[in-house]
Amino acid sequence: ANEDVCTIQILMSDTGGGHRASANALRDAFDVLHPGKIQCDIVDIFTDYGPFWPFTDYPAIYKIMAEYSFLWDWFYHLGASPFGIAVNEFLMELFCFDSFQECLARPSGSTNHRADMVISVHPLCQDVPLKILSSLDTNGQTRSPDARTTPFVTVVTDLGGAHPTWFNKGVNKCFVPTDALYQCARDRNVQPDQLVQYGLPIRRGFWDQASGKEQKTPVQLRQELGLDVELPTVLMVGGGDGMGGIVDIAAEVGDKLGSGSSTPAYQMVVVCGSNEKAKQALSSKQFGDGVKVNVQGFVNNMDEWMQASDAIVTKAGPGTIAEASICGLPCMLFSYLPGQEEGNVPFVENSGFGKFSGDPTVIAETVSSWLASPEKMNSLKEAALQAARPSATLDIAKDLADMVFAQKEKLRAKEPVKVGRA
Ligand code: UDP
C-alpha cells in the first residue's frame, strides 16, 4: 500500500453525462498539476451502493424521466419543496446510510485506508454522506457535523440553476460556477466563506493547452473530421444521451437549411451521443440539396467538433454550454430539462451569446441570419468568450489539492484534526 499519495473519493451518479465528465475532469486536472500525488476514487454511489431498487437504478430512471419532461418537471419541483427535501433526506438516511457507509469507508486508491477527502459532484450526495463522515470520524459516537474531521467539498455541475439539495451548510467548501448559483447557495444558508466561484469543471480537451496536443486551425480540423472546409457549419448536440427530441429538431432544421438553394449552402453535423436510434434515423434521412449533413454517434473529441464549427444548436446542458462558450460558439438552445436546465437559458441569453426557441423554423432562421452577418457572428463570439471560464477546472483542482495536502499533513502529524467549516 502506498501511504504517500493523497486520496480523494468523488461521489457521483451517471444521471446524465455531466457528473462523470466533471469528476474525470477534476481527476485529469490533479494529474496535470500534481502528477502521481493524488489518487481519485470515482464512484457511482447509487448504482454501486444503493440498497435496492429504485436507488440502484437512478441513471436509467433519470433517462426515462428526462425523455418525458413533464415527469421530470413534477418530480424536480416536488423534490425542491421543503416537504420534498425533508422526505428525500428521511428516506435516504433510512435506507442508504449503511450501504453508503460501506462506500465511504472503503480503502481508497492504492492505500489501505479510506479517502483523505470526499468530493461530491452530484445533487443527491451531500446530506447522508456528511452524516456518515461524522459517524466514521468519531467511530459512530456522534453524527454531529462539527465532529467531522474529513474534509467534504461540493463541486456543483449545474450552471444557471440548481436543485436545493446541492447545497448543504455543513460542507467545508462549495464550488459554484455562476452568480446565479452563488445566490442559490446563499438562499440555502451556505456562508460566503464556504463559497468559491470559478466556473464549471469540464473535460480536458477544453483547457489543457499544456498537454502537448498541437493546436489546430478550424480548416485543419474540418479536413481531419471529413467536413467541407468552406461551408458555414452548424453543430447539433442533444447532450450525452442525445435527448431533447434531437431527431425531430435535426430533421426539421436540416430541411429548412437545405431548402433555400440547389447547391450546398450549409453543412450540419449532428452528434447523437449514445442515442443509437437517433443516429440510425438521421443517417437514413434524405435532406435537401442546400445542406450537407454529417451524422455522428457518441464522439470523444467534442472539443474538435466544436472548434471546427461556426455555431451550435443544442439542448441547454450545462457542460455543452460551458464548452461552447470556451470555443466562442454562438448557442441556439432548442430544449431544456424543466427546473435543472431552465436557468441555463437566461444564462446564455443574458450573456449575449445565444437564443432559445423550440420551433425548428425559428431555429433555422435565427442560425442562418447569424451566419449571414459577420458583425453579428463577431459580437456573439465575443460574448461567448466573455462568459467562458476556461481555467475553472484547474482553479478548482488547485484549491482542492491544497486542501487535501493540508489534510494529509494533519494526519501525518497525528494531531487531533478539527475541520469544522474550514
Ligand atoms: N458529449 C460527448 N460526446 C457526445 C455527446 C456529448 O462527449 O457524443 C459530452 C458533451 O461534450 C458534454 C456532455 O457530454 O460535456 C453533456 O453534458 P451536458 O451537461 O451538456 O448534458 P447532459 O448529457 O449531462 O444532459
Automatic annotation (TrEMBL):
Q: Which residues form the Diacylglycerol glucosyltransferase N-terminal domain?
A: 19-202
- Write the protein's name: monogalactosyldiacylglycerol synthase
Question: Which InterPro entries does the record match to this protein?
Answer: Diacylglyc_glucosyltr_N, Glyco_trans_28_C, Glycosyltransf_28_UgtP
UniProt-annotated location(s): Plastid, Chloroplast membrane
Q: In this protein, which residues make up the domain named Glycosyl transferase family 28 C-terminal?
A: 233-338
Principal EC category:
transferase
Organism this protein belongs to:
Seminavis robusta
Q: What Pfam families does the record tag this protein with?
A: Glyco_tran_28_C (PF04101), MGDG_synth (PF06925)
Which GO terms are recorded in the biological process aspect for this UniProt protein?
A: glycolipid biosynthetic process
**What keyword terms does UniProt attach to this protein?**
Glycosyltransferase, Signal, Transferase
The record's EC number reads: 2.4.1.46
**Gene Ontology terms, MF aspect:** 1,2-diacylglycerol 3-beta-galactosyltransferase activity
Write out the GO cellular component annotations: chloroplast membrane
- Give the record's family classification: Belongs to the glycosyltransferase 28 family.
